[in-house]
Design goal:
The chain has about 450 residues and is of the alpha/beta class. It has eleven helices and 23 strands. Bound molecules: NADPH dihydro-nicotinamide-adenine-dinucleotide phosphate. The site of NADPH dihydro-nicotinamide-adenine-dinucleotide phosphate (NDP) has 24 residues, from helix 6 and strand 17.
């Protein structure tokens, strides 16, 4: 006889685990099926190990300036120590996820689930059938790599976390979140790093000051940023790999990493059995309550294509459980989502970029501050911190905040509260500054650096 549940969750990542625990807390009988490791991309091969690697690489910047504060530092780096400690921490978190689920009364099944009907799944290894009133798909995403000759010689972020040895040189293909973060990590760890991006400027969709500012800083840090560059082939050579680009430029390196986006993880899920049609990016379309077109099936997190960010998946998971198991219809408002990019320097961003604001509002005030961070007081450096506020000139509302520099991720989280509450520039102005911190610039920018009226900068 099939095991039967109120809720069956497919995928033990951030969104699935949160939904399972909250639903179980409301008294639902819940089962979660995970084929790999509990924790999902974020914990196992995403945000968490990335941030740990980012800390590791950040020491080199500190070692560079330490002598100006009187320190003598003789530094060397051991990749295997970092890997071992990272693995230990990830295993600890994975275990914690298991015990939190178990403690909430959720049954955990280590297997792969295929949906066979609106209320049932079949497990690949055991062949068992599980039935449930509701099925939640929380299978996340996976790296996308274009198909070019020799692509099999490249790695993605999945493998970058477990490389046996640290390469001496690497080409990272892409210009998004993962590309700039790993460029910073490898560069900071002493790897000769090339970033190859097909477009005119990295971080498409981000504010233009941030895009240009980060590209400049990456170059200051010694990263070779190749724009308008698209690899055409990758060949194995005696010494490593040779990447030949469409313009025939060649790059000889130890490693090639693709960071060319992620796609929803839906392969083999059995969606054809429940009549769910995928969206144009391969995502499972959902409404604001994470409902698919099949009334008993829901989808949260990266797989629904709304916003591929851990906190969004967690919020969607909790909202789904509130709606379906606590009779408390809860929507997830994604109109203002702050995010951080752990590049070097770090980026914190929320709301509209200048381009987006220009399209939506007729009069804007734009405030830009660029300054040398205090930690560089004793050394010559081209490194600059950047803060930018974009406000609606008519209502004074803050529409966008963009920060580049140390601590930007922490700052944007706090600013996010004010902007979510509907803060105006006047609210920022009447906030008394904290001194001496970089973030005080956010509340001391008096006159607009420039205005934009009907799309024209004045
Ligand atoms: P992104 O979508 O951020 O960037 C993908 C990059 O790859 C873009 O620069 C894109 O170029 C380029 N690209 C896409 N297709 C090709 C191709 N065929 N050939 C060459 N280049 C190509 O994806 P990421 O993989 O960096 O990250 C995936 C998602 O994960 C992010 O969108 C983000 O939501 C999330 N994430 C968040 C992090 C955070 O919050 N700190 C960290 C890491 C990931 P183009 O711009 O021209 O399309």
């Amino acid at each position: 006889m099939a095991n039967s549940y109120d809720l069956l969750v497919i995928g033990g990542g951030s969104g699935g685990v949160r939904a399972a625990r909250v639903a179980a807390g409301f008294g639902a009988k819940v089962c979660i099926v995970e084929e790999y490791r509990l924790g999902g991309t974020c914990v196992i091969r995403g945000c968490v190990p990335k941030k740990l690697f980012s800390y590791a690489s950040g020491f080199s910047t500190l070692f560079d300036i330490a002598p100006s504060f009187g320190w003598s530092v003789e530094a060397s780096f051991d990749w295997s120590t970092l890997l071992a400690n990272k693995d230990k921490e990830i295993a600890r978190l994975e275990k914690l996820y298991g015990s939190l689920l178990g403690g909430s009364g959720v049954e955990i099944v280590a297997d792969r689930a295929q949906i066979t009907s609106p209320n049932s799944v079949t497990l690949s290894s055991s062949g068992k059938v599980l039935t449930a009133d509701k099925i939640l798909i929380a299978t996340g995403g996976k790296p996308f790599v274009p198909s070019i000759p020799g692509i099999e010689h490249s790695i993605t972020s999945n493998e970058a976390f477990d490389l046996k040895t640290l390469p001496k040189s690497i080409v990272i293909v892409g210009g998004g979140y993962i590309a700039v973060e790993f460029a910073a990590i490898f560069n900071g760890l002493g790897v000769e790093t090339i970033l190859a991006y097909r477009g005119a400027q990295i971080l498409r969709g981000f504010d233009s000051h941030i895009r240009e500012g980060l590209a400049e800083e990456m170059v200051h840090n010694g990263i070779k940023v190749c724009l308008a560059t698209q690899p055409a082939t990758i060949e194995k050579t005696e010494n490593g790999l040779c990447v030949t680009c469409t313009d025939e430029m060649q790059m000889d390196v130890d490693q090639v990493m693709y960071a060319t986006g992620r796609v929803p993880n839906v392969e083999g899920l059995g969606l054809e059995n429940i009549d769910v049609t995928l969206g144009k990016h391969g995502e499972i379309p959902v409404d604001e309550f994470s409902r698919t077109t099949c009334p008993s099936v829901f989808a949260v997190g990266d797989v629904n294509g709304r916003a591929a960010l851990t906190p969004v998946a967690i919020r969607e998971g909790a909202a789904f459980a509130q709606t379906e198991f606590n009779d408390n219809p809860t929507r997830v408002d994604l109109s203002i989502v702050a995010s951080a990019v752990f590049s070097n320097p770090e980026i914190g961003t929320l709301g509209l970029s200048e381009n987006e604001a220009t399209e939506k509002f007729s009069e804007l005030n734009v405030y830009v501050a660029r300054f040398k961070p205090m930690i560089y007081s004793f050394v010559q450096t081209d490194t600059r911190m950047l803060m930018k506020l974009i406000t609606d000139a008519k209502t004074d509302k803050v529409l966008g905040v963009h920060i580049m520099g140390a601590g930007a991720g922490e700052m944007i989280q706090m600013v996010g509260i004010a902007v979510t509450m509907g803060a105006t520039k006047a609210d920022f102005d009447r906030t008394i500054a904290v001194h001496p911190v970089a973030a005080e610039e956010l509340v001391t920018m008096k006159e607009p650096t420039y205005k934009i009226v009907d799309g024209e900068r004045v």
